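Customer escalation, tier 2.

The customer says the design service returned an amino acid string that "doesn't look like it belongs to this structure." They asked us to rerun it and document both sides in this ticket. The original structure tokens are below, unchanged.
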């Protein structure tokens, strides 16, 4: 009795093994087949697919074997998820949102590191989407093709957010990378009648004017954005809010000089940020640094045309703003409304401190160096006594040319809370064309020159004003 039960069990197990083995074999051939099919598919892209690059290469770039994905390090293999396997068409017309969502969900649940592939040579149209974490492992979002949203407000689904397109939410450890293009198709958004001078006869009409940010990272950490080209966002190209540990490298952002509100990279409440080796030209700030940012390092970026690198605006609606330890160095700013700017509204509080602008070349920039504590977008901002305290700002080795419509240096600081410890060293600015503007502007600005400047600055006051020494509230963050 005992014996026969055991043999029955053995029989069952053998049968099970046989079934599993056959299935595994089938699965294997199926994988092989789809892989082959994919290869032939990509070398003959549908003729309706708008080519993202001028000369699409007929040859496939060597693709990682799959699975496992191997990046050269044999100990490092990742699961690979090609969006086409989830039904994405990549013809530039079909709505591929669901395929991307499925690829995301599958990759996100993958136990090992996962790579989502957006293949080269194809264009994927996807709607506003929130890619949500946390995911089980690290993710690579490898964009080698083109990603784009619906074309303009008319084609935007009525029930979808008009404030953001691609959102990455609660992600830890992700790299958005590749040689592909993210095309924001912003043209129709910039021309809405509510945008500056786009109404009838050059007016600006009232009304809701929401336009989507192309890529937003929210409440995420350990992020890398590398290699990509991003163009023509309807609004900001990138926004990072409430993030930690952000590394941006070798990206290019382009939009026309007259495209409204198309900031390149906006960060706020985000700490430990590196922005390196990138090129940004657009219609607004190249990089804008909002409240709650600390430990930001920007190196070797080329900005312009555009509005330059900006800390602020801060302190709007009497808010408290805290920004510290920001470095911008080894960079070029050309044909821009501003160079390096700190702007705050009257009535705010908090501190901007520990900012270094070093080794920056200005090329035909209006307001190359500017602190504006009277920032105001309407005509009726009233004078208020509180202000964001601006202190410990170093301008070192800032050379080049300025647009003579404004003085090359402008330090407009609050009456009640002056700026302190501004340091100028090796600042040499000459007119791009026309006559030298010999009067840098200072208002309640305290600091020192470490070297003589061109043009000479004689309006900085020495020491620390009484109001700062007496004010116990200043510097509270
Ligand atoms: C493994 O590969 C992924 C994708 O290329 C990469 O992001 C990660 O840093 C690698 N990890 C290690 C330990 O090499
Ligand atoms: C909007 O409507 C479409 C179609 O009914 C639906 O698939 C989608 O989930 C909706 N989106 C939101 C954010 O509700
Ligand atoms: C726009 O300007 C033209 C020429 O000045 C004028 O005839 C027309 O009435 C204006 N349209 C509106 C809506 O103001
Ligand atoms: C990610 O960032 C957090 C802090 O934001 C850090 O504590 C953690 O170690 C990081 N994780 C990895 C895997 O790097
Ligand atoms: C600076 O960035 C550019 C890309 O904009 C790159 O080609 C160059 O190699 C970088 N320079 C250094 C020293 O890293
Ligand atoms: C300032 O930020 C840099 C990174 O940009 C970091 O290495 C440094 O430790 C920070 N300094 C302070 C005092 O936090
Ligand atoms: C506000 O303050 C500035 C600087 O002190 C002064 O020039 C301006 O006249 C003031 N405006 C009003 C409305 O009091
Ligand atoms: C003035 O600012 C510099 C940075 O620009 C800083 O190193 C120095 O400690 C500050 N001086 C005082 C007295 O706070």
């Amino acid at each position: 009795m005992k014996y026969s039960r055991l043999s029955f069990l053995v029989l069952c197990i053998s049968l099970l093994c046989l079934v599993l083995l056959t299935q595994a074999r089938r699965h294997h051939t199926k994988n092989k087949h789809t892989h082959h099919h994919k290869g032939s598919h990509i070398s003959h892209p549908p003729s309706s697919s708008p080519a993202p690059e001028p000369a699409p290469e007929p040859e496939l770039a060597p693709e990682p074997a799959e699975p496992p994905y191997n990046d050269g390090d044999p100990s490092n293999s990742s699961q690979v998820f090609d969006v086409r396997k989830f039904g994405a068409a990549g013809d530039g017309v079909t709505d591929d949102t669901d395929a991307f969502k499925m690829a995301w969900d599958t990759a996100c649940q993958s136990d090992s590191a996962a790579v989502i592939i957006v293949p080269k040579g194809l264009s994927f149209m996807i709607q506003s989407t929130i890619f949500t974490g946390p995911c089980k492992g690290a993710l690579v979002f490898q964009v080698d093709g083109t990603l784009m949203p619906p074309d303009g407000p008319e084609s935007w689904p009525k029930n979808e957010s008009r404030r953001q397109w691609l959102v990455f939410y609660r992600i830890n450890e992700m790299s958005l990378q590749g040689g592909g293009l993210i095309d924001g198709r912003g043209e129709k958004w910039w021309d809405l009648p509510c945008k500056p001078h786009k109404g009838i006869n050059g007016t600006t009409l009232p009304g809701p004017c929401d336009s989507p940010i192309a890529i937003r990272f929210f409440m995420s950490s350990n992020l890398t954005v590398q290699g990509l080209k991003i163009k023509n966002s309807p609004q900001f190209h990138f926004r990072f809010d409430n993030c930690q540990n952000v590394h941006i490298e070798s990206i290019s952002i382009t939009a026309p000089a007259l495209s409204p509100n198309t900031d390149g990279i906006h960060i706020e409440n985000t700490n430990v940020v590196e922005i390196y080796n990138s090129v940004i030209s657009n219609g607004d700030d190249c990089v804008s640094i909002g409240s709650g940012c600390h430990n930001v390092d920007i190196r070797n970026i080329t900005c312009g045309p555009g509005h330059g690198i900006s800390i602020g605006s801060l302190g709007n609606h009497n808010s408290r703003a805290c920004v510290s330890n920001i470095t911008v160095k080894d960079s070029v700013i050309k044909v821009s409304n501003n160079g390096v700017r700190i702007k705050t509204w009257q009535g705010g509080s908090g501190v901007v401190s520990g900012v270094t602008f070093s080794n920056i070349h200005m090329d035909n920039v209006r307001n190359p160096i500017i602190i504006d504590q009277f920032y105001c977008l309407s005509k009726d901002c009233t004078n208020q006594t509180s202000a964001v305290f601006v202190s410990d700002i170093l301008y070192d080795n800032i050379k080049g040319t300025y647009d003579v419509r404004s003085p090359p240096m402008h330090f407009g600081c609050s009456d009640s809370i002056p700026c302190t410890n501004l340091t100028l060293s090796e600042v040499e600015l000459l007119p791009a064309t026309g006559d030298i503007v010999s009067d840098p502007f200072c208002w309640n600005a305290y600091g020192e020159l470490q070297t003589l400047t061109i043009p000479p600055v004689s309006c900085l006051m020495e020491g620390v004003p009484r109001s700062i020494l007496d004010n116990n509230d200043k510097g509270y963050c």
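Tier 2 assessment: The sequence is consistent with the input. The pocket of 2-acetamido-2-deoxy-beta-D-glucopyranose (ligand 3) is lined by residues 200-201 (CB under 6 Å). The chain has four helices and 31 strands. Sent an explanation to the customer and offered a walkthrough call.
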